[in-house]
Write a structure and sequence with these properties.
The structure is a homodimer. Chain A is an alpha/beta fold. The first copy, chain A, has helices spanning 16-31, 46-57, 64-91, 123-130, 156-167, 201-212, 217-225, 243-247, 289-299, 328-339, 370-380, 404-414; strands at residues 3-8, 35-40, 96-99, 106-108, 117-120, 134-137, 141-143, 149-151, 172-177, 198-200, 230-234, 251-254, 268-272, 275-284, 304-309, 316-324, 347-351, 354-360, 387-391, 394-400. Helix content of chain A is 35%, strand content 25%. In chain A, the strands form 5 sheets. Chain A has an 8-stranded mixed β-sheet, with helices on both faces. In chain A, strands 13-18-20-19 form a 4-stranded antiparallel β-sheet, with helices on both faces. In chain A, strand 7 and strand 8 form a beta hairpin. In chain A, helix 5 runs parallel beside helix 7 (217-225) and helix 11 crosses helix 12 (404-414). Chain A is globular. The interface between A and B is large, with 40 and 40 residues. Chains A, B: Residues 278-353, 359-422 form the ACT domain. Chains A, B: It holds the Pfam family ACT. Chains A, B: GO terms for molecular function: aspartate kinase activity. Chains A, B: It is an enzyme of class 2 (transferase).
C-alpha cells in the first residue's frame, strides 16, 4: 500500500462527465489498496470567467485591497471542483471528503495572487486517510496567518499537489496533464521531438523555468527540495487502463544521479517568447548598481529572469535583464521615472520582440564544448545572438523572436535529440 | 453616525452592472457618515447552477458526506459576490474588505444545508469599521466547530444579515428585495393589497412562516429575539434617490407595542400552497402518541407545520399534521412502514392538493369574534374548511387548494384591508 497524490488540471475537470472519469480513475487506484489524496484545479475556463467579472468592475487591479479580493473570488473555482469530485467519488462508492486550502490548512505568506506555501499541517488529512477516506484538496490556494485566502498564481495547483505530497511524504505525486510527458522540445515545433522516460530534477527545473510549461516551476522546486517522486502523465488515457501500465507511463522526475537515466549530454531544448529585454545603458560602474536598478523592480513585484552585466568601458557599463512581456511597459516606465536620473545613467532601451532558447542537460556538466556547439549551430543558420547566459546545466541565448522555430529545430537536430540515447 | 447593515438579494447582484449600482448605493450611505456592513447573496442563478452540477454527479443527496460537499460547493456563490462587491466599492473610492462566513467567523451547528447560527465574533469586523472600511460579509453560510463550511438553507442570507446586525447592535438592518415592502397580502392575487408602513415583529413572523416569502422566517426570529430594527425595502429604486427618502421607504418591523402602529385588527392575509396534510387515523388515545408519530418524522429531518389532534372517540383519535409538499411521499412512506403497525393505528391518509390561508394581526389579541368572521366569510363563499389552528395573533385554515385565490380575496375584503386604517 502506497500513499499517492494525484493532480488533475482544469481540462480533466472541465465537465461533470470528465469529473466522473477522474473519480473512476482515482477509485481504481484506491481499490488497488493505495491511500489517495487528489488535488484538482478549477473547471477549465472558470478562473478566467471569475477574474473577468472582477475586471469588469475594476480595470485597475494593482492595489493590495483589490488583489486580496481577486484571491477571494478566484479561489472559489477550486473549491467547487473539490466538492464536485468528492461527490463523484462518493457516487463511486468510496468515502471522500474535500478541504479548501484554509481547512487543511496550507499556510502561505500574504502575497495575494502569487503567495508562497510556508507549511502544510497534514493531521486532518492523515486521520481521514487512516479512516479509509479519499481526501480531495483544493489546488492553487492557501491561507495567510491572518486568515485571508491567498492564491499561488497560475498553475499553482501543481505546486499544491507536490507540496502536499512532500508534507505527507507521499510515495509518488502523479500530475495528470494534457501532454503525455516531458519532451526533448515542443513537438508542435519539432515533430521529431521525443518523450523522455525520466528527466533529472535539475533539467526539469530548467525546462520548466525556460517555458516548457509542462509544470509550474515552483512545483518542480518543491519536488526537488523534498525529493518528491513526481510523474507527469497523460489525463487522456482511458480511466480503466491497466494500473501497472499507467503507473509507469509519462515522464518521471528523478533525483539520484546514479539512477539509470538517459545519458544524453543535452536532454532538451526549451524556449520562451513571453519575455522582453531591457537595457539601462551608460551606468556609472560602481558598487550597488545592480541593486539600484533591480531593487525598485522587485519592489514593484516584477519578476526578472535573465540578468547580464558585462565589463565596463570608461567607467560606464550596460546593464540588461529580461522580464515577462506583460511587465515590459511598466518596467520601462519605472526605470525612466525613478531610476535613470537618480543613478546618472544614459538611457533605458528595450525590445519585446525577442525570445529565449536554451539547451538543457545534466550531462553538460562533464562535457566541454556543448555551448560552443550551440553557438556554431545558430551561426550556421545566420541567427544573431543578443544575450547569452549559462549555468552548469543549461545555456540560454536571447534572439529575435522571428528565428525561434528555426533555432529550436536546428538545435534539436544538432544535438541528435530525435534519437533514443544508447 | 449610525451602524447600518444592508442586505442585497441575488437579483441585485445579478450582473457586474447591478453590482456596481449596489456599490454606488452603499457608497451613498457611507459618505453620509454611516458605518456600513453589507451582506450580499450569490449572483442570481449561481446557487442553482452549482447545485445542478452536483446533482449531475449524484442524484442521491441524502448522505451527510454529500450534504457536506454541497455546502462546500454552494457557499462559493456568496464568496464570489463579496469579492466582486468589495472590488466595486474600492472602484468607488471606498476602502472595503470582504469576509467569508468562516473568516468572521459566523459559528453554526453542523447541520449541512440547513445550519443554524450559534454565535458571531464581531472583533475583526469592528476593527475594520473603526478603520473606515466598508465590510462585506457572505450571506447564507458559516462554519461549524470542526472548521467545516455550512450553509443556512435557501434565503439564509436574510438571516445572516439580521444576525450580523444583532451581533453588532446595528442601528438598522435594511433588506433590499424585489418587493417594496410587506403587503396586506400578495398583490398578484389581490390587486387592492396595500403596503404596510410598519408591521409588528409577531405579525411579520406569522406572515413569513405562513408563506409570504418576503423574508426568511429565521431572519425574523433573529430580528425579534435581538430587537433588530429591520426594514424591507425595494432594491429597484435608483441608487441615487435621496437618502432620507430611501431610509423611510418600505416596511419597518417594529417591536414596541406602544409604538405608533397601524391599529387594524387584522394586518394581512397569508397563504401557502407548498404544504400537504397527513392523517394517522384510529390511533389509540394514550400518552405519547404525538411523540411516537412525530419523533421518527423529526429524526428524518422533515419539518412539520400545523399539528392537530382532536378529542377521541372510543379510545381512538385521529392525528393530523402538515409537511412541505416535497416531503409528502417520504413522510407517508415513513409512517406506513415504521409507525403504523407499531402503534396499532388504523391507517395513514393524506392530501397534497391543499393550501393554508391565514389571517394575521396583533390586534386580534384584544378583539373577539375575528376567527368567527373569517369562518363566516369562507362559508359564504362555499369553501369547506378541512383543518383549523389558531394562535393569539393568527387563525389558519387548511382548504382545498383550488379555492385559495377566492379565499384570500374574500378575506382581504371582509377585513377591509384595502383601506388605510384610521
Amino acid at each position: 500500500m502506497a500513499l499517492i497524490v494525484h493532480k488533475y488540471g482544469g481540462t480533466s475537470m472541465g465537465s461533470t462527465e470528465r469529473i466522473r472519469n477522474v473519480a473512476k480513475r482515482v477509485a481504481k487506484w484506491a481499490r488497488a489498496g493505495h491511500q489517495m489524496v487528489v488535488v484538482p484545479s478549477a473547471m477549465s475556463g472558470e478562473t478566467n470567467r471569475l477574474l473577468g467579472l472582477a475586471k469588469e468592475l475594476s480595470p485597475e487591479i494593482a492595489s493590495d485591497g483589490v488583489l486580496r479580493e481577486l484571491d477571494m473570488i478566484a479561489s472559489t473555482g477550486e473549491q467547487v471542483s473539490v466538492g464536485l469530485l468528492s461527490i463523484a467519488l462518493q457516487a463511486e462508492g468510496l468515502q471522500a471528503v474535500s478541504y479548501a486550502g484554509w481547512q487543511v490548512p496550507i499556510a502561505t505568506d500574504s502575497s495575494y495572487t502569487k503567495a508562497r506555501i510556508q507549511s502544510i499541517d497534514d493531521k486532518r488529512v492523515r486521520a481521514d486517510l487512516a479512516a479509509g477516506k479519499v481526501v480531495v484538496i483544493t489546488g492553487f490556494q492557501g491561507v495567510d496567518d491572518k486568515g485571508n485566502i491567498t492564491t499561488l498564481g497560475r498553475g499553482g495547483s501543481d505546486t499544491s499537489a507536490v507540496a502536499v505530497a512532500a508534507a505527507m511524504k507521499a510515495d509518488e505525486c502523479l500530475i495528470y496533464t494534457d501532454v503525455d510527458g516531458v519532451y526533448t522540445t515542443d513537438p508542435r515545433i519539432v515533430p521529431e521531438a521525443r518523450r523522455l522516460h525520466t528527466v533529472s530534477f535539475e533539467e526539469m527545473l530548467e525546462m520548466a523555468s525556460l517555458g516548457s510549461k509542462v509544470l509550474q516551476i515552483r512545483s518542480v522546486e518543491f519536488a526537488g527540495k523534498y525529493r518528491v517522486p513526481t510523474r507527469v502523465l497523460s489525463s487522456f488515457t482511458p480511466w480503466d487502463i491497466d494500473l501497472a501500465e499507467e503507473a509507469k507511463s509519462g515522464t518521471l522526475i528523478t533525483f539520484e544521479e546514479d539512477e539509470k537515466m538517459e545519458q544524453a549530454v543535452v536532454a532538451g531544448i526549451a524556449f520562451n517568447r513571453d519575455e522582453a529585454k531591457i537595457t539601462v545603458a551608460g551606468v556609472p560602474d560602481k558598487p550597488g548598481i545592480a541593486f539600484q536598478i533591480l531593487g525598485p523592480v522587485a519592489e514593484a513585484n516584477i519578476d526578472v529572469d535573465v540578468i547580464i552585466q558585462n565589463v565596463s568601458h570608461d567607467g560606464k557599463t550596460d546593464f540588461s535583464f529580461t522580464v515577462h512581456r506583460n511587465d515590459y511597459a511598466r518596467t520601462v516606465d519605472l526605470l525612466k521615472n525613478k531610476v535613470l536620473q537618480q543613478m546618472g545613467a544614459k538611457e533605458v532601451t528595450g525590445d519585446n520582440k525577442i525570445c529565449k532558447v536554451s539547451i538543457v542537460g545534466i550531462g553538460m556538466r562533464s562535457h566541454v564544448g556543448v555551448a560552443a556547439k550551440m553557438f556554431r549551430c545558430l551561426s550556421e543558420e545566420g541567427i544573431n545572438i543578443q544575450m547569452i547566459t549559462t549555468s552548469e546545466i543549461k545555456t540560454s541565448v536571447v534572439i529575435d523572436e522571428k528565428y525561434m522555430e528555426l533555432a529550436v529545430r536546428a538545435l534539436h537536430k544538432a544535438f541528435d535529440l530525435e534519437q533514443q540515447p544508447a
